[in-house]
Amino acid sequence: MTGTLPWDGEMTCVRHDERTGASFVIALHSTTLGPAAGGTRAMAYPSLDEAVTDARRLARAMSLKMAAADLPIGGGKSVIMLPTPRAQLDDRRWREILSVHAHNLELLNGSYWTGPDVGTGSEDMDVLARTTRFAFGRSVAAGGPGSSAEATAQGVFSAIRASVREVGEPGLDGLRILVQGLGAVGSRVATLVAEAGARLLVTDVDEARCGPHVAAGARIVPAEEVTRTECDVFAPCATGGVIDTDIATMLPARVVAGAANNILATDGAERVLHDRGIIVAPDFVANGGGALHLIGREVLGWSESDVLARTVLIEKALDEVFTSARKQRITPLQAATAGAVERIQA
Ligand code: NAI
Ligand code: PHE
Ligand code: K
């Protein structure tokens, strides 16, 4: 294992479990503001190198997300590299994998706290929380705050509002908004923008998920055509890495604002989009609603309305990012990163 990405984080732990065939990567990017917190992603990866690289990039994004949301928490991430895709794993093996992960959390003894991410949910946090104090994001039935999807979608909606203003549009009315991925977050983003008068375009590899939106007037875009489809706002709410430098050169959109972590495959892609006049809402600001919900509700004792009040401030936070980028002649990603790093270093 070489670890291909130059990385500015604190520590990366790797464990392989012979019995389940799963490998675990836990990246602690920063513990300066508080314990390194970030979700547990469970999926199959082509190689351990790729799992390590993903964990590190995602952990870094969590540090920036926590700082941008002004939460007293650091950034980390767990990746469970599964021996087979999650859907093919039987329950017993998954529970064994979770029990190894609970042991990982105990070993780290509070330097790292976890929550749900792609491939894990509140029920998995319930299971972890039976043996470790360092898992949050439990289900409502188990006394936790439940899914963060609603808050994340609300924050992405606020981010879209700020971003369209930056390209000179007064509101969402009549704009073509393309939502990629109609899962827990994307389906809610789609509903919110449609309610605000946008012309909705939707795509999901699971086409059945488009159904309810089509019934409400949305148009389906084939999944493989998404980055070639003309729209005003492209909202990636499926996976990360959707825009590389080549795609950035031709993406026919005016705004990119979505929920996915690490939407850009490289930072260079943002520069290309920026030079083309396309506004990119830094994802770690746009998708901070989930962190506000999970950390706010379960760690800081906030009410649901406290979370909402903080989440809608994402619109103002992005206004400030865009203004600062314009003034300093840098990109919004550079401005948002500088702001978050300043908070971490203060
Ligand atoms: P989800 O798993 O509920 O939904 C993802 C959806 O994307 C699924 O419907 C899936 O079929 C679809 N999809 C996957 N690959 C696709 C592709 N290539 N093209 C089109 N559709 C595709 O996930 P969730 O919770 O909605 O999260 C979405 C994204 O937002 C993820 O990247 C996640 O990391 C990020 N995020 C989620 C937060 C949350 O609170 N749930 C918080 C912050 C970020
Ligand atoms: N995994 C989600 C995210 O990337 C939710 C989450 C936030 C999980 C904070 C743990 C901690 O934002
Ligand atoms: K999930």
From TrEMBL:
Keywords: NAD, Oxidoreductase. Belongs to the Glu/Leu/Phe/Val dehydrogenases family. This is Glu/Leu/Phe/Val dehydrogenase dimerization domain-containing protein. Gene3D superfamilies: Leucine Dehydrogenase, chain A, domain 1 (3.40.50.10860), NAD(P)-binding Rossmann-like Domain (3.40.50.720). SMART domains: ELFV_dehydrog (SM00839). The keyword Oxidoreductase applies. InterPro entries: Aminoacid_DH-like_N_sf, Glu/Leu/Phe/Val/Trp_DH, Glu/Leu/Phe/Val/Trp_DH_C, Glu/Leu/Phe/Val/Trp_DH_dimer, Glu/Phe/Leu/Val/Trp_DH_bac/arc, NAD(P)-bd_dom_sf. The keyword RNA-binding does not apply.
